[in-house]
Structures are given as structure tokens and as C-alpha cells.
Amino acid sequence: MDKAHVEELTSQHASLAAQIDEEEHRPLPDMIKLHELKKEKLRLKDELAGHFH
Predict the structure, then answer these.
(1) Where is this region: Disordered (predicted)?
(2) Are the C-beta atoms of residues 10 and 31 closer than 8 Å to each other?
């Protein structure tokens, strides 16, 4: 995995974190959307962790 790919994954991870935070602070959070965002964030985290091991 090259540096550009790692930077892209890191950027996507940060974007998902922001989306999750925004959704969690809505008056009526969409729990299905929140679940999907968290699942994707975890997938990216795992992919990044695999790069460093």
C-alpha cells in the first residue's frame, strides 16, 4: 500500500468520523445510517491497521 493510498484511507476515516458525530447529534439520529457509517469506519481502520503490521 503506497503513501497516497494510506492518506486517502485516513481522509475517508476522518470524514466518516465527522459524519458519525453529526448524525449522533441530530435530534432524531438515523440509526441504520449510523450503523452503516460506523461499519465502514471500522473497515477502513482495519485496512489501515493491516498496512502497519
Answers:
(1) 1-26
(2) no
> For the CA atoms of 26, 29, 30, 36, what is the dihedral angle to 10 degrees?
90
Q: Which domain holds residue 15?
A: 3-51
Q: What is the CA radius of gyration of the chain?
A: 13
Work out how many domains the chain is built from and give that number: 1
CA distance 25 to 11: 22
What is the reported pTM?
A: 0.85
Name the phi and psi angles at 24, rounded to 5.
-65, -25
Reading the chain (53 residues) residue by residue, the pLDDT tens digits are 789 999 999 999 999 999 999 999 999 999 999 999 999 999 999 999 987 76
